[in-house]
Amino acid sequence: MLFRTLLPTLTFLSHMVSAHIQSPTEEIRNTLSLWSFYLDTGSYTSLPHIFTPNATMILPPPFETSTGIEAITSVLIKAAGNDTTVHALTWQVIEVGDGKREERAEAKTGYFRSGLYPAPNLPYILGRESSGVIQKLGSGNTHSLAVGDRVVALSSTTYAQYTAAPSQTVYKLPSSVSTSDAAAGLLQGLTALTLIREAHLVKSGDWVLVHAAAGGVGLLLIQLLKAVGAKVIATCSTPKIELVKSKGVDVVIDYSKDDFAPKVKEVTGGAGVVAVFDGVGKATFEKSFECVARKGSMVSYGNASGAVPPFTIARLSGKNIKLIRPSLFGYLATREEFETYTKELLEFIEQGKLDIKIHEIYPLKDAARAQEDLEGRRTTGKLLLKP
Known about the structure:
Layout: E1 2-9, E2 30-38, E3 58-59, E4 71-80, E5 85-88, E6 92-93, E7 100-110, E8 124-125, E9 129-137, E10 150-154, E11 162-166, E12 170-172, H1 179-199, E13 207-210, H2 216-227, E14 231-236, H3 241-245, E15 251-254, H4 260-267, E16 273-278, H5 285-291, E17 292-300, E18 322-324, H6 328-331, H7 335-350, E19 358-363, H8 367-375, E20 382-386
Parallel strand pairs: 1-7, 2-5, 13-14, 13-16, 14-15, 16-17, 17-18, 19-20
Antiparallel strand pairs: 1-9, 2-4, 3-6, 4-8, 7-9, 7-20, 9-10, 10-12
């Protein structure tokens, strides 16, 4: 399917899907180039390495301009570096294939990227999630979607006015959920939801510890945990304490001033927490492990501070602890799983139990400024790009 993107979320810094660094220890900033291209139709026998068959509608040369065709803007990463450049280029667009949909984008989201995952082959069009309106359907299984539907989608190369994605990861939005909230909340919201449903099934009354509670996943995670009745201990930096408190957590620990491990033991009467949700990694792993209660779970889902050092598995046996390294897409491998969790996530938003905080909506042409704001830690909540 092809859909018009209304608000893509800023994803070129995603630690999950858009890392553009070859080495975990190498710090590289990405050069972003804005490429102007034209919507056209054509045929193809093979796609270039910068695109994937299930997530793109763009073809390389020949660059034949079709008069009267709407111009499209896309953000493309060309090389590692610090500069940004604007280029003009004409692209052709392929017909959407079986089981795909074409979407006019409304919103796209962005994330912090620390370079802990291998880079894709460059050049590469950025983006991983978006919302918009379906413009065209492929001939395969469209899962009851229709042209004109407002949808939210997980797909590749979403930093453009139009994007294509497999219908398996497209979901029709209820009228009460805005395209901006949907795009801003989809990827990290699904991450948070599957953490508490799959990685460790959290029950009402459970004590849990959440690190980086003011971060993209963390802020949604603490709200979902409170919605299911958990008792939440959250860590964050001094400037974000009030924000975290406003989400109803039971205990907030300023990690820049206090050692969280003794505080967790004190709050839980020495028992520890039934689950630690740790997206920080290297800096917090050892003390987080100390905080896990007997038969509890250590859920390590991110490496914001660096990769966790080698771990001796025999250490788990002392308290029969479960160590889990979950992947969102491992929980969303089927259409049924994607539908189930997306439906539940949107219901939390509809019911007012999940507040999606949007820091700013940037014009797509200002993607580089959005990146600078994100890396400079000048933002709280999600950043959206508007084509």
